[in-house]
Amino acid sequence: MLLHFSPAKPLISPPILRRNSPVFLISPPRSLRIRAIDAAQIFDYETQLKSEYRKSSALKIAVLGFGNFGQFLSKTLIRHGHDLITHSRSDYSDAANSIGARFFDNPHDLCEQHPDVVLLCTSILSTESVLRSFPFQRLRRSTLFVDVLSVKEFPKALFLKYLPKEFDILCTHPMFGPESGKHSWSGLPFVYDKVRIGDTASRHERCEKFLRVFENEGCKMVEMSCEKHDYYAAGSQFVTHTMGRVLEKYGVESSPINTKGYETLLDLVENTSSDSFELFYGLFMYNPNALEELERLDMAFESVKKELFGRLHQQYRKQMFGGEVQSPKKTEQKLLNDGGVVSMKDTSSSS
Ligand code: NAP
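# NAP complex -> structure
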């Protein structure tokens, strides 16, 4: 590309030079002006090589389920140079075009593109029906299937049940979403379990290439079995979503005197309120540990209430009957993971 500059108004102002400066002696004659820059040209061999290399190392990734989370992930996958093709129940052609992906409204057409990776981003609840009707026979036999569901034992079992045994399986959970990961993924946990990766170097390399996207974004990479993930996630993720929804129903609102703690609650509501109820219900239905956690939460709430009302009751009795009233012996209780209760210590003397 040639850039013509007016000789009267040079774009780069000449340096201020002293008369005896050595540079002055070799400064260009007045008529010499910049007429071209070294921009990347289509015939630039180096640029062409780079783009060939990018193409050869790019994965063709088929995103199945192009809703909230599918779109969020796709933007980053494209930024890392991968070729994205997508399919969803609803028509997302415009959304796909806007980020440089291609949308196929028919799953058969999507599969005939022979993607290296199929990335399942559908809701937890629809997973089985999606897999049951998916035209696997149109894919290459070595395809890598990846899921991002927020529960892990469930998709692992379905993959092992429905996928042809030649397919590779990688179960993952990016533990962040469009809200918590909107600025950066740096330091955010990415859990994965290489459930079944074929015994060839190219299959391992393909899996690593996929994981590298998250690694290069700065995620905290955690290799963990699906079973362990669900055990930990019930006590953290499910409880977080539940509290977010409870507080949303309660109606927390910003005020001019927000404390740091209150700001945390507002952030929690903001982080969880944009997720669909279907997602939340999926966390409850398909994490075998979620029901127990919900019961523990309920018991903990009751126990805190009891403690408050117990103290109030004592004060009331004091006022009614005067003098020292023998308070009943109190013991601090802790709820166990198995739903049981253990008495910790006598706390009546400390109050
Ligand atoms: P979601 O409500 O869990 O799932 C929405 C997606 O599921 C859409 O692509 C939707 O397709 C598809 N879907 C729903 N019902 C379907 C059906 N009967 N048949 C076919 N497709 C169906 O919301 P999401 O936030 O996008 O989550 C997608 C997945 O990512 C979930 O498995 C979730 O656990 C996981 N995930 C989400 C987050 C997050 O922060 N949101 C974080 C980590 C992992 P259409 O839109 O075309 O109807």
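# post-check
Residues 65-70, 88-90, 121-124, 126, 129-130, 148-150, 174, 177, 275-276, 278-279, 282 surround NAP (CB under 6 Å).
The CA atoms of residues 249 and 269 lie 10 Å apart.
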